[in-house]
Structure formats: structure tokens, C-alpha cells
Amino acid sequence: MPLPLFSDLQAAIVDLDGTMVDTQGDFVVALNLTLAELALPGVDRVFVERTVGKGSEHLLRSTLAQVGGDAALYDAAWAAYQRHYLAINGQHSDVYPGVVEGLARLRAAGLRLACLTNKPLDFARPLLAAKGLDGFFELAFGGDSFARKKPDPMPLVETCRALGTDPARTLMIGDSRNDAEAARGAGCPVALLSYGYNHGEPIRAVPADGWFDRIDALARQLGRLPG
Ligand SMILES: O=C(O)COP(=O)(O)O
Ligand SMILES: [Mg+2]
Asked: Which cofactors is this protein said to need (predicted)?
């Protein structure tokens, strides 16, 4: 399908990690503080970049497996990880270029906005606030807000229900195949950003309605404006 026009859309659902904020540094620091506390070796940025996307529980389980940690350590690791992540949340992260301008254009075009991330909501809310992005969003949901996470369509279906919008008129904006598969299953159009985390695979190989290098460029395309 071609990318919809603003006039076709009621709302946009926007992913957080890798789409609005480059949070790789936060993940690396919080994981390595956790591993150090458990006397385990650390992980590097490449591992984290390839593993982020399916929620923090998955990231932590994969990290323990990667460094040879016993799966029985998971509960202690999760408690330590939450403590460390909340203490550094946003300090090693930056909003990507074009995000603020792009979100402002989406709002100016009359779209309602919800943030939907696989990150726990208690991590997502303070991050959105710390980066000055919370004011754009009517609703925010995390990986623990619903029974299943992206790539399952359930979180998108439920977010559309909460917004009261038609999925076919609700654009998913994300950075990974988790976002694209969830959108497809929910019947939402989807646009993908090229700079995020897609498990080490090229984003343009993931089926979508459009691929962009910046959210403001996506917003111009929704208005069919040049540039
Ligand atoms: O926390 C993750 O694994 C990824 O979060 P995201 O859904 O905002 O990309
Ligand atoms: Mg993402």
C-alpha cells in the first residue's frame, strides 16, 4: 500500500526505543551495572543493539545467556536491572534528529498520538518526560500494559481501542520488524525509521508502507510536501 495522506489518518502510534530516542547507551550502562553486581562479565553495544526490541525481560534473559549466567539468577538480575535502569534512565540517551519537529507536524495536522513501546511503562513514562516528549502524547502504553507485546498485534489493537480510532486510519511509526508485524496483524499502516534497532537486519527488507530517515521527513510525506 502507498503511504496514507494526513486526510486518511485519525491517529499515529509511535514506538519509543530506536524510533524517538536512541536508548542504546542506557541499556548498555544498566545491563553492565547489573552484571557487575552479579560478578558476571559485561556486554557490548553491538550485542545490545541486536537484542533490544522484544522488551526488557527478553533483553535480560538473552544477556544472562550471552555471558554464561545461570538462568536461576533471573529474579535477582531483574530486581537489580530495574533499580539501575531507573537510576540512569535517559542519561545515556538522545532524541533523534527530526523527532520533535515531526511530532509537532503530526499534531498540527490533527492526528491524535499514542506512544506504544515494549519497554516497561515505569521506564517509558519518565523517559518521555525527561526528553520533553510526553506533551505530544494523549496515551502511553508499555510492554507490561497488555497481556502480549509487539510483534503480537494485541497492543496495537488495544491502543486503537483506547484512542477510539479505526486501525486502518491509525499509522504505526516504528523502527523494527516487531512494529511492522504488529501493525500488519492489527490492520494498521506502518512507516519505519532507518536508524533504530532491527535485530541487525536492514530495515528496508521489512515489509512496510514507507521507510524514512527522519520523522519530520515522514510527516512531510504524509502532507505530500516537498523535502
Ligand atoms: O524495550 C524494548 O525492547 C524495545 O522498546 P520499543 O518497543 O520502544 O522499541
Ligand atoms: Mg523500537
From this structure: Mg(2+)
